[in-house]
Write a structure and sequence with these properties.
This protein is 96% helix and 0% strand. It has one helix and no strands. The chain is mostly helical. It has one domain.
Length: 51
Amino acid sequence: MNNERELIDKLVEEYQCSSNLSEGWNKTIMISQRVGALVASSGCELLRSLV
């Protein structure tokens, strides 16, 4: 009975950890997309200034 409870606790911990990871990963992707858009737009401005 005690082992079963420990197993459930461990599974809950792992689930919380993985959901935090995926949440963090989604935020990282959003940030990198914004940074990418900024870099792309400033890159276009740079190209225009050279032309």
